[in-house]
Amino acid sequence: MKLQLSIYARKLSNVAGAFKGTSDPFAVVTKIVEEGGGQPEVLGKTEVIKNTLNPDWTKTFVFDCELGTPVKFAVQVFDEVRKGDNKSMGSAVFDVGSLLGAKGNTKAKKLKKSGTIFARVEKYRGEGTLRLGMKGVKLKNMEGFMKKSDPFYELNRKVDGPSGTMWDAVFRSKHVSNNLSPVWGDSTIDLGVLCNGDQSQHILVRVFDHESDGKHVLMGEFETNVKGLVGARNGSAFAIMRKGKESGKIFVTKAEVMGVERLTEQVAAVSVSGAGTTPSAPGAFVPGAAPGVAAATAATGAFVPLAMPQPVSSGQPTFFDYTSGGCQINLSIAIDFTGSNGDPRQPGTLHYMHPDGSLNDYEKAIDAIGGILSKYDSDKKYAVYGFGAKYAGVVRHCFQVGPSSEVDGIDGVIQAYRGVFRTGLIMSGPTVFAEVIQTAAARAASAQEAANQNGEQAYSVLLILTDGAVTDVHSTAAQINQVSDAPLSIVIVGVGNADFSSMQFLDDSHPPGSRDIAQFVQFNTHSRNPQALTSATLNEIPDQLTGFFTSKGISPLPPQRMSEAEISVGVEEEIDLSLNFGSDGEIAVASGGYCAPSARW
């Protein structure tokens, strides 16, 4: 799929120097190759915005993205120096997977020097281009008696956010100096960027008086759409309004849509709810719980999605459409504590706790695969279960790992896992997945039902870590099929070097007409190749998620947009990346790369 990346920055450090005014920032975006060598690829640079430390760049970067292929971008901000070397203002690295899993598909990174860079990805809907020319007539002067305004116009795309309508600047013209009837040159604008390819979508045209200090003055504005601009070629004028009063007129001198055969009419649709039944399940046993600590309980009863109106998008909905609309991905993890794992006190066994703190095989799998899936879980809170161990002489096939029903982050999972060996656990058997599958399915159905009540969506992923074959593979396959109507995917990960051939049977075994919700990944096969591991882990989940919602007639919600205060801000990451700026405007990577954090194992 094609995505587009947009960036902006706030409170940058002024590096212009004493008595030289304010910096003129621009950003360079470079695609980083993490594994397997290869040169970083410069995708391009934004426009320069004069005299500001809070740039809103209109340039976007379109790129191909295959879910499961790790992609990172380096964003380097520079102060343009016309007669000398550009000055660095800071840099940050963004992981596309983390952006896809973040609320509003937006994240921010603090810079070492000062300031914050914001990055957002969204689906790119290439639908041709608009060739646009405009002129102003008798615009109101903002400069007083001795001078005339220097007008430029800005095109803004409408975005519906949680706090109401927001406008994103996606194009700025050059300013025309000292002229109240400016004629702006023709420009070509990507319709995918301007209006997501929807020529009926509202756009806001704003006209500003350009100021050298960057504090441009609004001269007036009007709302229209691409169809309106094309229709105005016959000589109709748009009145620009400022503070409720007309402040001039704008005429369209050229408006031609290219690369689109016909205008696509948008129609409204209403999704139809579908009812499915997910069996109820017992709650997870809580070992050694203190008084007042309750077991993690699972919801009971039938899952019945609510009918709610949804817009129709062109083509089939994608995984990205659902996550962009705020579909919450909930991750649960189940860990095998059967006796076949060996005595955890003995070196070389899968659960052995290394005195130096290095990770054992299960912890490596939690860190690697849990880390992959966690990118799509925005609240980073995970339910952790164990199975196959005895408490007080009773074999428990689903018990809570850790003192609470959810833990914070992958580090929290590992700490809860380590702590379980201090709860009186005796590793036993047999290897039975049924109860954790039932519990996860009921929890998933409950989460989606609660989300529907709030006009939201939720989907769950159960990660099962095991050292070998399940005791009754056919019974387990039947159990997986029984919960296939739940909003759930199951990823079974083989830890160690046992014979996992029967696990592949669970991956491949689903009756015709039922959803395929399970997949198997052998950790050791991919553990030294993060790209292959990511691809194997995420291979089936996108289709499983979209298959569930479309089978229920549930369309994606509109894309979310968060206010700056709601956006998660991460710490800076070091970039060792040197760029060459050619005299012809070309930018190339001279040396270096992204200093990725090393694996913990």
TrEMBL record:
One of its GO terms (molecular function) is calcium-dependent phospholipid binding. InterPro entries: C2_dom (IPR000008), C2_domain_sf (IPR035892), C2B_Copine (IPR037768), Copine (IPR045052), Copine_C (IPR010734), VWF_A (IPR002035), vWFA_dom_sf (IPR036465). Pfam families: C2, Copine. Coiled coil: none annotated. GO terms for biological process: cellular response to calcium ion. Keywords: Repeat. Residues 1-109, 113-239 form the C2 domain. This is C2 domain-containing protein. It comes from Odontella aurita.
